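Translate structure to sequence.
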């Protein structure tokens, strides 16, 4: 197993175990199966295990596995504060105490503000008193590293990144997401600041394996290196020295073994010109189903009315390359749940964007098409409700509870 350094020089395995996808047995986690997979990973050198308060049963399962095998000192636990549920300082303490109890531990190695999509969410936590709370926990040793996980656009990612002295961060990143969400720009900016970056969704929830077009699968299989689709995606990530750890939701021994083999020898800078060419061809095949030829260059931005043009087009394309529900879910995360609305319906058809588009895309026309597909009535209602919940004003008491 290879290791890369965290902010303080500690070794982190380049492969992390994502605990969201433990196998279920009925309505609960199959703890015995999960234990075998976790322990196989530990034996192979994996030392970073990622869970969260809202992953059903995950923290408790991980706590039981740790207790059964006495491995607390051998691993790093990463879990997350459900910031979208927080309205007071007292609530922060409540959720954190519950997480410690579930995980059967008295400290968390890597603690994240979960699922930030906009800088306003971080500002809300600051008003409640999160910075003082973090300082207290770090001084006591109850939290050893503080970070945030992010789904949103690059601009808001950079604002959050630069607003606090973070120990690490976690972003969605893969060869199809180079220019979306935090993207390669966010990855490199974090690295420049010396902030380790943990990668989630390296396979886009398995879609870069199971839902690859047959032509792409055939191309990968026929390549002389005989990489599997998953191995190719992981190697692309490990090739980048800015990547600290890549999470994988492993739920079989075979998956653990394959991912550990890849993590053992995929050095930063090992990718050849042929490897990059293969990735480019795979991306071209995937994009054959896209509805808009947007490259995410952002020359069309900023829109005077705040429309996230490249973000909308990326999600519109995802509906046809990954599935309608996937595209709409990505839209909700990265466009629908930003503090300042960024919907296509805000377009006043000024045409400024089209003047700067190097692809000569009829942006105004395509925005209307995209909005119709991405926001059917039930999605409009759901996003509206979610916005009210996520951006409700925090109940800040004078004594900060």
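Result:
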């Amino acid at each position: 197993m290879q290791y890369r350094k965290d902010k303080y020089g500690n070794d982190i395995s380049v492969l992390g175990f994502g605990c969201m996808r433990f196998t279920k047995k009925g309505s609960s986690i199959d703890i015995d199966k999960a234990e075998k997979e976790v322990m196989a990973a530990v034996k192979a050198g994996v030392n970073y295990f990622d869970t969260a308060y809202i992953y059903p049963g995950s923290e408790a399962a991980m706590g039981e596995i740790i207790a059964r095998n006495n491995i607390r000192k051998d691993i790093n636990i990463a879990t997350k504060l459900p910031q979208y549920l927080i309205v007071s300082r007292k609530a922060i303490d409540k959720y954190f105490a519950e997480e410690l109890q579930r995980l059967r531990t008295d400290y968390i190695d890597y603690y994240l503000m979960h699922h930030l999509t906009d800088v306003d969410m971080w500002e809300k936590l600051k008003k409640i008193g999160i910075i003082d709370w973090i300082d207290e926990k770090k001084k006591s040793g109850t939290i050893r590293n503080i970070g945030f996980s992010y789904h949103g656009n690059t601009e808001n990612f950079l604002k959050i990144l630069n607003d606090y002295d973070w120990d690490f961060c976690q972003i969605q990143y893969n060869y199809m997401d180079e220019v979306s969400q935090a993207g390669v720009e966010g990855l490199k900016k974090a690295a420049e600041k010396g902030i380790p970056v943990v990668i989630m969704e390296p396979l886009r929830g398995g879609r870069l394996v199971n839902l690859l077009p047959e032509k792409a699968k055939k191309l990968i299989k026929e390549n002389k290196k005989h990489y599997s689709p998953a191995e190719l995606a992981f190697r692309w990530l490990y090739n980048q020295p800015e990547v600290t750890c890549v999470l994988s939701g492993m739920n079989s021994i075979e998956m653990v073994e394959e991912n550990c083999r890849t993590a053992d020898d995929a050095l930063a800078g090992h990718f050849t010109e042929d490897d990059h060419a293969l990735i480019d061809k795979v991306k071209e095949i995937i994009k054959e189903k896209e509805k808009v030829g947007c490259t995410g260059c952002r020359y069309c931005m900023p829109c005077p009315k705040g429309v996230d043009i490249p973000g909308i087009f990326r999600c519109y394309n995802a509906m046809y390359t990954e599935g309608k529900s996937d595209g709409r879910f990505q839209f909700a995360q990265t466009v629908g749940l930003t503090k300042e609305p960024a919907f296509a319906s805000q377009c006043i058809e000024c045409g400024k964007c089209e003047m700067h588009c190097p692809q000569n895309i009829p942006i105004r026309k395509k925005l209307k098409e995209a909005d119709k597909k991405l926001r059917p009535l039930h999605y409009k209602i759901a996003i509206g409700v979610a916005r009210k919940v996520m951006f409700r004003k925090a109940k800040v008491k004078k004594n900060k509870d």
